[in-house]
Description:
The protein is an all-beta fold. It is about 0% helix and about 55% strand.
Amino acid sequence: xxxxxxxxxxxxxxxxxxxxxxxxxxxxxxxxxxxxxxxxxxxxxxxxxxxxxxxxxxxxxxxxxxxxxxxxxxxxxxxxxxxxxxxxxxxxxxxxxxxxxxxxxxxxxxxxxxxxxxxxxxxxxxxxxxxxxxxxxxxxxxxxxxxxxxxxxxxxxxxxxxxxxxxxxxxxxxxxxxxxxxxxxxxxxxxxxxxxxxxxxxxxxxxxxxxxxxxxxxxxxxxxxxxxxxxxxxxxxxxxxxxxxxxxxxxxxxxxxxxxxxxxxxxxxxxxx
Length: 273
């Protein structure tokens, strides 16, 4: 099982209504001359007729009945955003913090109760600084933090011997189509998105050098390092299916975390005209 951070997109039909969103926000902004700016924003978004699939059925089976496997529901996103910005002088920067909630609700899924959506990152912090060493040369640093994304993890896994022996005489699309007479293992899930990945954070450093201009063509060289302290940020997690299982033993669920990038240096050359 792999928890991929993906979305499902399907067309609107006579049976599937187009999605609708209603957004409300209230903000306050304070400016101190031209140096500092502070902004606070409260927001609430109601989503209607959003869709998901029945988590038991397979929608990718080229069936004309795929519409019956799509379930309509609602979404609720709300929170607060704070921003402090300094935009003049040799040292400039932005500090932002977001407190956010994101919920989804679908009839017949998760006991028809709300569950946190993948966008439900409770705390988000971003700090970006830029220091102008001299005209045409600047140094930059940014640090970002985000709470772990929710994901679904079974509390138990048990073998489906009926499926392995094909007692019913036909394949059931609710399970794996690649049985090969092997035992299929079914997850027991108490609720959706019942666990969270580890927080994501990284520090990035960079420098930008303006190399001058020739005939209205500007030359800019940029170099830096992404994720300086080589944080292993989680992208997805998975666990392996068991090959054999004994009723006399308890098997702990072994998780595997996958990350996209660790420390990554970069350099770029840009022409502007």
